[in-house]
Design brief:
Length: 369
């Protein structure tokens, strides 16, 4: 994620706004215990919550960084700290985020001389007492900051426009992301029943239509046709309408964990879906995975043709279980389902995983990953 720091009237909030409007960044909507000011909208400007609720969330590890200002609490949620996000923070908030090993931080200090900033404050007719207080609060906050941030962008006398500064920031950030991504590993991930709940939900529709009582645990083989009534020729084509596919839900913790993995590794969604379903699957991923873009979706009937470091899938036929130097991936993560339990994992190259928290922990433990 991108963090902007700078003194009062350095232009950081305007730069943030341009990054969102022009370059497609998303602003982190922080949580606060203060009441909304006139014109502010809950969920847009801040998430407004009670002090009790804030402290409860803080105790559970919900926040990546917390600050107190004029007696009010402010905080950014861990799940919001992803690579498509930009946040304007104090140096203290930035330092908190940089201690989080699972958050990829690029920090940029917008450096404008104090004299120029004071003139700007007077020119825009800010409240004098508030301006004095903000200026005083800056004193000491930024000592040593230039040695702590990823980049410093100077703008003496505001010789660069906010649009220029936003472009400079964007260039710096994308440059950093390309460098780090080129060095990292590649995760390939199936979509149906690994990220979403396709089979579970389609069985509900099938049971209604055919007066049956099949459950997920009844499907002990990849060939679903073995378990459904003969009059249902193809359960997926019969019930897999665009409307149905759009209504699928995420597996527990999938959104949070995938966001963390995408911040550290190359991450691709590999699916062997029907051609007619590609568009709706792409749209579903855009709605449910904030960091996703269409370039991350790989449609391939034979997943052995796609090479990476880890494959996360529920279909045994997509894995090369006998590893050689020519194997398409280094590690197989078998996403546990009743139809793949006939295969025994060896816990060296082939692992069985039962959920997304377990996936994240396992990747973290792999010595050469």
């Amino acid at each position: 994620m991108l963090i902007l720091v700078g003194g009062s009237a350095s232009g950081k909030s305007t730069i943030e706004k341009i990054l969102c409007e022009k370059y497609g960044y998303n602003k982190i909507v922080s949580y606060t215990t203060r009441s909304p000011r006139e014109g502010e909208i809950d969920g847009v400007d801040y998430h407004y919550i009670s002090k009790e609720e804030f402290l409860k969330k803080a105790q559970s590890g919900f926040f990546a960084e917390i600050g107190v200002y004029n007696g009010w609490y402010y905080g950014s949620a861990v799940e919001d700290c992803t690579n498509d996000k930009v946040a304007v923070l104090t140096p203290h908030g930035m330092r908190q985020l940089k201690t989080k090993s699972d958050i990829d931080v690029t920090s940029i200090y917008i450096k404008v001389p104090r004299r120029d900033r004071l003139i700007k404050i007077l020119q825009r007719k800010d409240d004098i007492e508030e301006a004095k207080r903000r200026d005083a609060s800056d004193v000491g906050q930024f000592d040593g900051i230039e040695d702590e941030v990823t980049y410093v962008i100077e703008n003496p006398e505001y010789k660069f426009t906010p649009q220029d500064m936003a472009e400079f920031v964007h260039q710096k950030y994308t440059s950093t992301r390309k460098t780090s991504i080129n060095k990292c590993k590649t995760i390939l991930c199936d979509v149906d029943e690994v990220i979403n709940n396709l089979v579970e939900k389609i069985l509900v529709e099938y049971n209604k239509q055919y007066n049956d009582s099949l459950t997920l645990n009844d499907i002990t083989d990849w060939e679903v046709k073995k378990f459904i009534k003969p009059e249902c020729e193809n359960i997926f084509t019969e019930f897999g309408t665009d409307e149905f596919l759009s209504s699928l839900e995420l597996q527990p913790k999938a959104k949070e964990v995938i966001g963390k993995l995408m911040a550290k590794y190359n991450f691709y969604f590999v699916t062997s879906t029907y051609p007619d379903h590609v568009r709706v699957k792409d749209e579903w991923l855009k709605r449910n995975i904030p960091q996703y873009d269409s370039g991350m979706l790989v449609v391939c009937r034979d997943k052995h043709l796609v090479h990476g470091d880890i494959l996360i899938d529920d279909c045994i036929g997509n894995f090369t279980l006998d590893h050689t130097k020519d194997s398409p991936v280094k590690y197989n993560f078998i996403f546990d389902k009743p139809w793949n339990r006939s295969v025994q994992e060896d816990n060296t190259k082939n692992f069985r995983v039962h959920g997304w928290d377990e996936i994240y922990e396992l990747i973290d433990k792999l010595e050469d990953f």
